[in-house]
Amino acid sequence: MNRAGLRELECEVIACRRCPRLVAWREEVARVKRAAFASETYWGKPLPGFGDPEATVLVIGLAPAAHGGNRTGRIFTGDRSGDWLFGSLWRTGFANQPTSVARDDGLRLSGCYIAAAVRCAPPANKPTPAERDNCLPYLAREVGLLESVRVIITLGSFAWDATLRVLADLGVPKPRPRPKFGHGVTAPVGRFTLLGCYHPSQQNTFTGKLTEPMIDAVFTRAKGLVV
């Protein structure tokens, strides 16, 4: 565990301006705002990871939502994907409450840390490969600082592929053949176990592709893998 290192990384992430397109978009969204949040002050900056520095489980998403994390200043906070994610974390014992609405709402995670492959809200939720690669060194440093992590849950195929890239950059031996993403799929990669989960986006939850029992099963499985 390296709390000082995580605090230093947090400051670097928040100050990042590496990707001109993402900087312009996140700041435009923060200025124009959605009508429902017109009275709020948007965060409008990159998002650091959040959670327990002694976590054994690391959850990796794609990127902040324009009117979710980009508004509230905390990953998966203030949007429907976050409602699903934190509801499951609460039901499976990783969170002290089922909701995440603001940075000062009292939410605490135990045994779990949450990050994203890309730290700024991208237009149409689609970062470019170059933007992903600009951001991945932050995730690599997080993985190195979170010394107790043994299971990495990736929310969607984008996060799965990004995680494999990060682990390769860290010198973790590459599995052969390269494991493919799937919901509930596990893959040993060095000292880690990758565990796939469909992203709790409205596209998946509204259509029934991802259900509460399905996402709960992933986090329950993660707990079993670190015992």
Explain what this protein looks like in three dimensions.
With 227 residues, the protein is α/β, with parallel strands linked by helices. The protein has one domain (3-226): Uracil-DNA glycosylase-like domain (Uracil-DNA Glycosylase, subunit E, 3-Layer(aba) Sandwich). The chain is 40% helix and 12% strand. The protein has eight helices and six strands. It has helices spanning 3-14, 20-32, 69-72, 80-91, 129-145, 157-169, 202-205, 212-226; strands at 50-51, 57-61, 112-116, 151-155, 186-189, 192-197. The protein has a six-stranded mixed beta sheet with strand order 1-3-2-4-6-5, sandwiched between helices. Strand 5 and strand 6 form a beta hairpin. The model has no long low-confidence stretch (mean pLDDT 97).
Arithmetic mean pLDDT: 97
Give the DSSP E fraction (strand runs of 2 or more residues). Answer: 5-15%
Classified by CATH, the class is Alpha Beta
Shape: globular
Which architecture per CATH? 3-Layer(aba) Sandwich
CATH topology: Uracil-DNA Glycosylase, subunit E
Rounded to the nearest angstrom, the radius of gyration is 16 Å
Number of helices: 8
Helical content class: 25-40%
What key phrases describe this protein's structure?
227 residues, alpha/beta, six-stranded mixed β-sheet, globular
Short description:
This protein is of the alpha/beta class.
Question: SSE layout and pairings?
Answer:
Elements: H1 3-14, H2 20-32, E1 50-51, E2 57-61, H3 69-72, H4 80-91, E3 112-116, H5 129-145, E4 151-155, H6 157-169, E5 186-189, E6 192-197, H7 202-205, H8 212-226
Parallel strand pairs: 2-3, 2-4, 4-6
Antiparallel strand pairs: 1-3, 5-6
Helix pairs in contact: 1-5, 4-8, 5-6
